[in-house]
Each structure stands twice: as C-alpha cells, then as structure tokens.
Amino acid sequence: MTSKSSPSTIRTVAERAGVSVATVSHVLNGTRHVSDALRARVEAAMRDLDFVPSAIARSLKQRQTHTIGMMTPNSSNPYFAEIVQYVEDHGFGAGYHVVLCNSNDDPRRQSAYLQVLAERRIDGLVLVPTGDDATVLAQLDGLRMPVVLLDRPLAGMRFDAVCNDNRAGARLAVQHLVGLGHRRIGCIGDSPATAVSCEREAGWREVLAEAGLADQAPEVQYGHFTAQGGFDAMQRLLQQPQPPTAVFACNDAMAIGALGALAQAGLAAPADVSIVGYDDVDLAHWVHPALTTVAQPKQQMSRLAVDLLIERIERRRHEAQTRALAPSLVVRASSAAPRVAAAAPAL
C-alpha cells in the first residue's frame, strides 16, 4: 500500500494491474470497451492502492462535471426550501449533483457566489435572482454556462425562465375575498419591491378596480418577504382609522406573520380579518387557522427548470424559453365572509 505522502496515480494503478495507462483511463471514464477480466484487475489494483479518481481531472477530460448550481435569495423562506428540495431531487434523479448557495437577497453576495460557482466548473445554474434586472443581467453576462431563471424572470432576458402567472394568482385571491363580501381589502407586499411582488400587487389593484372598490382600499403596506415583515405590516394596517376586513399577503410567510399580529391584537382570522397568502407552502396547512392561499405548482416548476437546464447542458436546444405555469386557489379556514357583508359586486 502506498504512503500518504505518495498518493496513488493512474500510472501506479496500471503498474499494479499489469495494464496500460490507457486501459485504466478507459475503465474510469467508460470511453472504450474493456474486457471483464482486465476491468477486474484494474478495480482490484485501485482497491489495493486506495486509489480515488480525481473528479476534477475527469471533468477536464470529459468537459462535464455532472454538477449544477442552485442559488436562492432566502433559504429560511419555506417556499424556497421546498423549491430547493424539488430541484435537488430531480437533479439527482437525472444524474446531477446540486451545489446550493443562498444570496440572502444581496446582489453583492449573489455576484460573489456566481464567481465561486463558475470556478467550480459546474455544468449549469438554476437561479432565483435578486437585485434589479440590469444588475443581474450584467452579473450573468460573463458566465460561460447555461442558466435557467426560476420564479423571478427578468426583463429583456436571453435566458430560459420558469415562473407562475403572479398577476393571475393574485386575481384569484382577491376575487375570492370580493366574492365573500369584503369591501376593504388590504395588501401586504415586498420591500424593496421585487417584480414578483409588483405583479401580485397589480393583480390586487385590478380586481378592486373592476369591483369598484379601489377607493375603499387602504394603502399597501410593505415589508420584507418574511413572517416578521408580514407581522409589522399587519400591525400598521390595524392602526388605520378603517382597518381592512380582509388582507391579501403577497407570500405565505407574510400571511403567517399577519396571523400573528392579529393574535397579538386580540383578534382572529377569519372572524375579524380574513387572510389570504400566496405560495401554498407545506406550513400553510398546519398553521391555525389553516391558511387560504394561492398555490404555485412548485414541484412542476422545479422539475421543468432542471429539464430545461439539462437540455442546454447537452446542447439539445439553443433558443430561450419562458414558461409561465398557472396557479390555483386553495381555500382553507383563514378566509370567510365579513361579519356585515353587503351584496357582492359583479366581477
């Protein structure tokens, strides 16, 4: 057995097995047929010598590492945690390892991690971007690898993107509340505003305008896309002279924070204020009351993002695609008719 100071190489394996260096290389890389007898001798020599093939060297030869990157803006957000799980599961099933990074919604950290991933010679990247569109596009411009944007598309992009129809999803949520008889319907959005939050806010405004309720709506309250952000925004809504009877939160984390603010104020959903979220994270089913929310097809989006990325990696497609999948409304216990409901306007 070799000493630790002299690690085994392909050459020492070849000498031990009594074969050529080329034969060992073919066994390792599967680049040519090797007889069962020779393969057995090479594998026995590798075991005897504690030989571990270099993944980096093999990737340089094959020009592929079978590793993809995945970067999200907030790993503590249950929505992104579920997205990561689906991407990792589908990537692993397709023969790819996944390297995970968290930008923490910081464009500078995102830029640093993009450089790290490029140096690791990953084959491609699934990215939930953070920062303004021009900044992200500039950061991606120098990357020599396929990129698929997930959840947050960019204006004027030339990359594949997978998202859901955020405006349509918000419309489902607010139409549900209007149909229950609510007139003063508040909105809690992300700050600084992401394109996703802006689209959801736009859907909220559209439905209120169509129902003739725009002048009764309180100002949008903004906070970070977190439970704390939703808690703080809900407290501000409750302090208004005419608090809303229903609130659309632009993600489930904020909706759960809003439920906490109601409880602290001695109020409850849906008896005092109805709450509707967006994402349908697993936790939405388990909070009390169970959260009415807009369900994104998270598993389908994640699998599609990985499939599009692998198509790019394997050079089976060159044109950019944007896929916007349809959301759906999941009605649970956090929404109900207000205590005094007027006739619902036609939508």
Automatic annotation (TrEMBL):
Annotated keywords: DNA-binding, Repressor, Transcription, Transcription regulation
All residue ranges annotated as the HTH lacI-type domain in the record: 8-62
Pfam families linked: LacI, Peripla_BP_3
Gene Ontology molecular functions: DNA-binding transcription factor activity; transcription cis-regulatory region binding
Record carries keyword Transcription: yes
Database matches in SUPFAM superfamilies: lambda repressor-like DNA-binding domains, Periplasmic binding protein-like I
Annotated InterPro entries: HTH_LacI (IPR000843), LacI/GalR-like_sensor (IPR046335), Lambda_DNA-bd_dom_sf (IPR010982), Peripla_BP_I (IPR028082)
Record-given protein name: LacI family transcriptional regulator
Native species: Rubrivivax gelatinosus
The organism's taxonomic lineage, starting at the top: Bacteria, Pseudomonadati, Pseudomonadota, Betaproteobacteria, Burkholderiales
